[in-house]
């Protein structure tokens, strides 16, 4: 950013909620959020609020995304899976933070938008898949970290299985109205809770598979 220009509002919002990881703050400074919301919502992109992105979905509050990313303790070498691409904002942040980003979105229309948005800001190397993210992305596993952008009663077992030993997973967990962002670590073949971050309200993680975790409706 050029000298004299004020800090991007997403950076200030992240700092306000206690994010201190300089790499996360640098990623927030590098990604123009207005490029990851629908044109009609562009004037609101600098507000630290979730915004509607169509298909009955929202893009999360930037300060919350920053908090979740900080919890993953990324150093730059990792391969990371995101479940719930939306318009691609968090995927773009991840692309600035780690070596390889794979993201899964169940709405093909949103995945298309995300791809276009990522290409437009020069992040064409992010792999955007269309599918049921509760199944993870086995062909790209193992992942050093996984972030889930939609809420479920529990972590889908396939996601735990695709984590590398010592890998971290962050996800909003719990029923509607009682969701908490939980940070897990994969140790000795098990997910162990390492931290409960904050109460939140996310859109539901919708499984199309046999072990349904939630519903859109
Ligand atoms: N990561 C986005 C937030 C998107 S909101 C951002 O940075 O703003 C959560 C997204 O999860 C929605 O787009 C929704 O369609 C998607 N989703 C819900 N259930 C899913 C599933 N089982 N697999 C993949 N995506 C899912």
Summary tags:
alpha/beta; seven-stranded mixed sheet; disordered C terminus; 217 residues; binds S-adenosyl-L-homocysteine; 25% helix; Rossmann fold; two-stranded antiparallel ribbon
At the third CATH level, what is the topology name of one domain? Answer: Rossmann fold
Structure classification: alpha/beta
Provide the spatial order of strands within the biggest beta sheet.
5-4-3-6-7-8-9
The rough form would be described as: globular
How can the largest sheet be summarized?
7 strands, mixed
| Percent range of helical residues | 10-25%
Helices, by number, come to 6
> Roughly how many Å apart are the termini?
43 Å
CATH class of one domain: Alpha Beta
Give the strand content: 25-35%
Please report the total strand number as a whole number: 9
Order of helices and strands: HHEEHEHEHEEHEEE
What multimeric state do the chains show? single chain
CATH architect. name of one domain: 3-Layer(aba) Sandwich
Rounded average pLDDT: 93
Which molecules other than protein and nucleic acid are bound? S-adenosyl-L-homocysteine
CATH superfamily of one domain: Vaccinia Virus protein VP39
